[in-house]
Sequence to fold (70 residues):
Amino acid sequence: EGLGGKIFVFAAGADKAEKRSYDKNTLGSPEAIDVDRAGNLYIADTYHHRVVVMNPEFKIISTFGSMGKG
Fold:
């Protein structure tokens, strides 16, 4: 169960100052990750100001959040 022994590296060595384009299927600057009992991943994508939820097959099933004001 879980991630099936897979290891994933997100944004390794990325320069935060580099130009990035927004793509709903990419992570801009993931800062934290959590897993629920069903194996879904919750990833704090700080560059895109959102939380991305992926199922155990690593498909995006939900996103929430947006850039705040102030």
